[in-house]
Amino acid sequence: MKPVIFHIDVNSAFLSWEATYRMRELGETEDLRQLPVVVGGSEESRHGIVLAKSESAKKFGIVTGEPLVDARRKCPGLRTVPANFPVYVRYSNALQELLKDYSPDIEQYSIDESFVDMTGTSQLFGPPLEAAHKIKDRVEKELGFTVNVGISNNKLLAKMASDFKKPNLVHTLFPDEIETKMWPLPVSELFFVGRQTAKRLYSLGIFTIGDLAKTDKKIIHDNLKSHGDVIWEFANGISDSMDKVANKDATPANRSYSNETTIAFDVTDAHTAKAILLSLTETVATRIRADHSYISVISVYMVDNEFKHTSRQATLTSSTNVTDEIYDYVCKLFDQLWTGNPIRLLGVHTSKATTEQHRQYSLFEEKNVEKLSKLDSAIDAIRSKYGEDSVKRASFVKKEEDTHKP
Question: What's the CA gap between 158 and 96, in Å, rounded?
Fold first, then answer.
């Protein structure tokens, strides 16, 4: 039986989630998706970059990642709204819960992308195209936003398929469709080909994905080394390198705990990065406590927009499973690690897990840590019974309220 892989990609995720939140939860009547709107900064500060854009804004030539000041020059009447990351995490989690109704094998690739293994499910949900439409339509009806669904036999081709014409559509890209559907596309649209890599390929006379696929692999390797090997394989529909690119499963199960996310935009400020790291840390710490374990090594992993991988690690004097304590170390490591380059992936990794806690207490620290540990346990129990959103951090709630004050 050939594998059947779906790639679920939220259309203009941050803008869609922002619009859905305002209409469904705040009672607003206008749909931001129908206006020239971008997510990416406040009207007051007039700084930042475009994180997401509406179709109306796209018609003015506005692109994701460009400075807001440039976007406003293209569209003088452009409306901007600041990013509200806690809300986006909540809608992302709701999507994950819905997808679990279709397959137990789900890989969340980023906050707005997931791979779903649909192999052998045709008796339950119909042929792949029919099942994909069911998922797409249900997401729109129940959650209020739209997705594209890409279908193939491997993750790479499914991801490429979901990037075809948008929004709210289903596309296939099976191996026998590569030559007609993928090869004519600009090489810059191939997964893992950034701006600098595209420029290098142009200098070699390679302008389409098909050009890259047909070029001798040695030539690509000589010019781009191991990165060239990966993109040459991708151009030929070979998906084996995808997990290596994302550094998945880098640590052994039950002895380490980690979580990471590929971000849909370039993170250029520490505040946003630390909000993402807090979300990752909460997930990691919850898993540690669920196994009645304690960790004593913490590391932060980062990939910038040119795919440069860096990390920083710290060994703790005392083992812990307390969220706030782990997060304090995560923030310190981030501050030491980040050089200011735009960030595309963040990860929190912990290791040296044991089932017994080893701690050197001071008189005041002992009381504080014990309180935090009891609080974490209580929150875990409430979330387990009533759902992830039953308890929220005050900082996240305050951010939602401040962002949407009239």
Answer: 18
Express each pLDDT in 329-366 by its tens digit.
Answer: 999 999 999 999 999 889 898 888 777 666 555 444 44
User: Per the confidence metrics, is the pTM higher than 0.70?
Assistant: no
- d(CA 20, CA 27) in angstroms, rounded, equals 10
Residue in this structure with the two tokens 């710490």, named with its chain if needed: 285
Q: How far is the C-alpha of 280 from the C-alpha of 254, rounded, in Å? A: 18
Residue 167 preceded by cis peptide, ω within 30: yes
CA distance 133 to 148: 10
| Residue in 25, 28, 113, 388 annotated catalytic | 113
Which amino acid makes up residue 315?
T
Verify whether residue 97 is a known catalytic residue: no
Give DSSP secondary structure letters for 267-286. Answer: E-SHHHHHHHHHHHHHHHHH
CA 318 to CA 313: how far, in whole Å? Answer: 15
Q: Find the distance separating the first CA and the last CA of the chain, reported in whole Å.
A: 55
